[in-house]
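Page 47, continued from p. 46.
Same chain as before, 250 aa.
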Amino acid sequence: MEAYLIVCPLLFLAGFVDSIAGGGGLISLPAYLLAGLPPHLALGTNKFSSALGTTISTARFALNGFIPVRPALLCVVLAFIGSTIGSHLALLVSENVVKDLMIVVLPIVAFYVLRNKKLSSDEGMVERIPDKLALIITGAAALFIGCYDGFYGPGTGTFLLLILTGAAKLGLRTSAGLTKATNLTSNLAALLTFVLNAKVYYPLAIAGAIFNILGNYFGSGMVMSNAKRVVKPIIFIVLALLFIKILWQG
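Result:
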């Protein structure tokens, strides 16, 4: 019972944060570790619950017209390929390599967020680039971020959202919708690897998934109704938590 009391409220918060700015794994993965699951089992169980939660927020974005079909299909295919590659690489490469890399990357990302005003812009205010170039950038981002998600995971949604708004020059809501579709695909691809290797503890995974779904549902509603006020502050928080977590564990 103690495990469920730890996991359920934290998975709600993880889903809420993840649906808005990504980075819900910063909360959900430690929740399963705190509940006493071994690391590999915690990773697989976390992928199970986060994949189900992301499904709900992705569906909500799609129903509200925030996921354009053509770039979304490209993102789905490339994210699946990238995540499959990443999850298999994770079995071969030490986690310390990723942590050392993130210590270098995160300050750069944080500086970019501080200077990037696109996350405060509405759809009609965003500077545009040619559609073909935007599609190329979007596809490349889905492939590489998908690989990162399969390999390590935390901050996936945040990084992709930054690339789509900053480099691909997409509007905030469109970027958030594509981020959800991409993140869902990469979650499912990585989950498949863990399921095939019997690394999912289903009783706790299902309970966590229910609360993660609720958090995703309410969080995605806030993005669609008040994106300008909500998204950027939460991205700051997620990046700060991610950096602190890596330094603390390093």
